Amino acid sequence: MYRVIHQLNEQNFDRPITKSEAAVLAYLKENFSKIPRETVVKIAHESYTSQATINRTAKLLGFKGFSDLKYAIKEDVALMNSGTDSHIRNTEYVLSKIDFDSSDCLVKELFKSRHKLLLFGLGASNVSAQYMARQLLYLGIPAIVVSELQMLKRFEDYTILILSSSGETQRCLQIMHDAKKVNMKVLSITKKESSIMQGSDCAFCHDVAVDKMEGISREQQLHMILMINEVINKLKGEHFSDQH
Prior knowledge:
This is Transcriptional regulator, RpiR family. GO terms for molecular function: carbohydrate derivative binding; DNA binding; DNA-binding transcription factor activity. Pfam families: HTH_6, SIS. Residues 4-80 form the HTH rpiR-type domain. The chain has a 5-stranded parallel sheet with strand order 2-1-3-4-5. It is elongated. It has 2 domains: 5-81, Arc Repressor Mutant, subunit A; 99-239, Rossmann fold, CATH 3.40.50.10490. The protein is of the alpha/beta class. The model is unreliable at 212-219 (pLDDT under 50). The chain contains 11 helices and 5 strands.
């Protein structure tokens, strides 16, 4: 498991950070692969901070000081460059951030709404929505992927499932708002404690950092695909086992 990279993405610290610590964290994130070759003096100079701030930031990240942090970053960089092992570790990390128990409610609601189901996602999440629609079709559930707000007016007695990795995309929030206006049930696959999750009747949630760093950005929809597969497998196992 990475020791530093995920902490820099999530920044879930037990105290507020100072402006100078934020500058150091930003520098570490932007220059991650170079850090093992840099000195504390150079980092202090380029981040417009001090050596004391860098050591304090290292402790904020859970290390004894900059030397300890630097060694951990070196190990992370090696993992990022190690091919298969890197992908395995990242997948393990993603799996640990998915609340699989929260899928049960979603599966039940999807089965109830299987004859009148809409899917909505934007950008990369739209690709995930298309993938889910195809998997549902294999189960005999003809879900409709919608892309425009105006389409909701034609499906007022449907249920909508919003796929949003961040749970804060403005158009997704608008879709949710408009769906509620026409009394649609709103389901979601989204980030824990996000606006989409809080506004949903039922949500399957993850806590994966949204702003991925260079080197693992290509995996930013991995959690969504894993979550979709979990839903499909549960639908097939719990509700369609006698039919297939």
